[in-house]
Amino acid sequence: MASKAIAIIAGVGPGTGAAVARRFATSYPVVLLARNPDNYNSLVEEINKNGGKAMGISTDVSSPDSMKQAFSKIEQEHKGAAVAAAVFNASGRFVRKPLLEMTVDDFTAGYDVSCKGAFMFSQHALPLLLKHAEDANAKYPPTLIFTGATASIKANAQMSSFASAKFAMRALSTSIAKEFAPKGVHVAHAIIDGVIDIPRTKEWLKDMPAEAKIGADDIAETYWNLHQQGKRCFTNEIDIRPMLEKW
Amino acid sequence: MASKAIAIIAGVGPGTGAAVARRFATSYPVVLLARNPDNYNSLVEEINKNGGKAMGISTDVSSPDSMKQAFSKIEQEHKGAAVAAAVFNASGRFVRKPLLEMTVDDFTAGYDVSCKGAFMFSQHALPLLLKHAEDANAKYPPTLIFTGATASIKANAQMSSFASAKFAMRALSTSIAKEFAPKGVHVAHAIIDGVIDIPRTKEWLKDMPAEAKIGADDIAETYWNLHQQGKRCFTNEIDIRPMLEKW
Amino acid sequence: MASKAIAIIAGVGPGTGAAVARRFATSYPVVLLARNPDNYNSLVEEINKNGGKAMGISTDVSSPDSMKQAFSKIEQEHKGAAVAAAVFNASGRFVRKPLLEMTVDDFTAGYDVSCKGAFMFSQHALPLLLKHAEDANAKYPPTLIFTGATASIKANAQMSSFASAKFAMRALSTSIAKEFAPKGVHVAHAIIDGVIDIPRTKEWLKDMPAEAKIGADDIAETYWNLHQQGKRCFTNEIDIRPMLEKW
Amino acid sequence: MASKAIAIIAGVGPGTGAAVARRFATSYPVVLLARNPDNYNSLVEEINKNGGKAMGISTDVSSPDSMKQAFSKIEQEHKGAAVAAAVFNASGRFVRKPLLEMTVDDFTAGYDVSCKGAFMFSQHALPLLLKHAEDANAKYPPTLIFTGATASIKANAQMSSFASAKFAMRALSTSIAKEFAPKGVHVAHAIIDGVIDIPRTKEWLKDMPAEAKIGADDIAETYWNLHQQGKRCFTNEIDIRPMLEKW
Hints:
The structure is a homotetramer of 247-residue chains. Chain A is α/β, with parallel strands linked by helices and 247 residues long. The first copy, chain A, has helices at 16-25, 41-49, 64-77, 104-133, 160-180, 216-228; strands at residues 6-10, 30-34, 54-58, 83-88, 143-149, 186-192, 237-240.
């Protein structure tokens, strides 16, 4: 008998990824991918202690081999398991520089993670998502979610690395949605348009009320709501911003 | 003491409007606006019988006087009540004609309801939504939702009346969102991209599986999820389509 | 024998309209529509004096009767003439107000001119543009151009009247383009994203170099280039901004 | 004394690239970059014979070294020359496949040329374009043009490689436009939405009139018109389609 359907979250740090992991762990065993185990170790422990089931796998999402190994470990741990939800939340090195000061590596750093990584993650996850689509007992359609940003639809000066990567990921998301929705996989792209309230952004907007930043838990709840949508109501794109955002 | 916060749904027929009314009636007294009382009478009865609270008001949303009278009746019935949710779901007469065969009335028919009506509805609802924003006991931020369509972002041949109206409503929605979000009102625009499964569309796509149409109940659930979003996570636009939609 | 093909420009003031009239008058007799004859009288004189041919017609583009009369006068003056180019450059009363302070008239003022007016102008002009499309001697495909603005694609706070009107006009333009391109009429929408350098804006950005504003003559030249495009290369949308614009 | 300002076209085959080269060669010495010299040899000869000045350089635009060598050769041949126009017209290997059948190389093939290549081309060309911006005798502002496609704004099923690459290039174009317009460089992105009439597409749409395809010469003329725009009227994006295109 196949193991219980799982959720996989790629790109787990102290913000959105962790919040999404906690939220989805209330219904599914979760697998957390991050390059640095420090990013998931305490979270894995926390989830397992609180009655959930979690494992972390050190993964470089821009590396074909590393990604392949991660999914092998998932198969070892969760033999034959379908994937109920897969969330791609990784972002590459963020480069903001005048165009003439960038190296080729600077420029492609965003793409290698955000788009090439998202492609490889999707290739590994989709067969397992399709498996869930065929499971008559599945509570919700399998869901593949990509975390985008303001730069997914807006390319500002000095932001060519990040914006080109995020534009590219958005195209990937739509193309996969169109190919796999008829097979029962729900693909959604979220435009996170604002500063997420995480330790790293603690000093940003510090003179503003809490509503100037996006809550990571709120994003997680919205992702969960996307996951709950039925086959007769797939949302393929949402935007998210805090109450006080200027846009 | 003010009455309990209510939800108002403009444009109630046998589809989205009715489903939204039922969904929001599980938490709020609901007020249903439609020109023809046949569109809400049995629904009002059904909701009241099932333990909810509902009233219907015959309203021509394209008429300033009719809209004004509707909100007077709401104030009479729900004295001092704030509005927790207002959903504008009305659409004007649908005209699909070669441009040279349209009358000026044909052309403006869409705008008068979908945009001018949405504007007037918003003007009446916003002070009541702001009241809810100031209520420290409000469970969720007050929410103003506009129902758009494929034509909100795509203007096909012979669709100029409908598309220009829906484009215009989308602009209105965004402008209101930007003005009122900082005051705590959550404004969202939904692009309903597909055929909704209602009695009128029974014969459409009849050789296709149920997943070729959008479920009205599913739209209602998604609107409810939008309403539940907190101040640190407002979604201003979503799209919705059925699993089998080509797009 | 039919008269020479003409160009019609609706919305002639001291800026874009006048510049477009001058530019197109180098090839075609031009007809200028504006409510106030002061807006075209000296320009008509100037063009006629310089070897061109021009006439002005006082027209309220938001009035079906006035528009009808204008085209009757055109037919009287240019019996049987085809239209080589029609440019809709009119904008309604510009209202920038908090939503709750607007009257219904404030709100619809933009639409009545920018969209309803554009619709009526198109209905009158299209049969004459189609006539030019059938003329084997026509040098360029007949062209219908709509002047949009930043607000055609961006709806800011307090800008709901203008933005909803301009969004609507953009939808109209696309819908007409899709219906009439196969019949040989080139329809284009221009997003003018910046301040045009006209007498009224003299005090704006006055500490900035000339390149902070858009040149009306430059817009006219770009419109002329659109007109020159052949049937195998129709541009349906362009944006225009000055070198120093922030966007 | 510096050499005369030149135009550089990357991605020269028998279609758009060649037509653009011919058009710009009427005003500037042109440099043609293509991997395979067969793609430019006869064209270089033709232009030189007809009174223009042309050179071809075998270049792999996805290779940093090859791109660097190309610009060294340009500097040798045109010592100190500014660049009046640079057109990036290269596209990578076109892959249309179900997502699960693609290799990582298939997926990144589009990006490596269309986006990474465009980035490197821009980095080499921009200092020379800036030089032209500072030349008081320059007739037109220096212009950097990127050739996009339908897939620049639409990501269909099985098109994730091409669409993600083209979305990414569009972001790059906008980001560069915003950074360099204030310095006087005009950056434009063209969405070529349709089949271009070239030898390779001869059999496509062969039962349709000539107006079902885009003329390469027409694209070139439109690019030339973009180049002619003054500093008070920069177009940053245009679309182009043939009269009979469905969109």
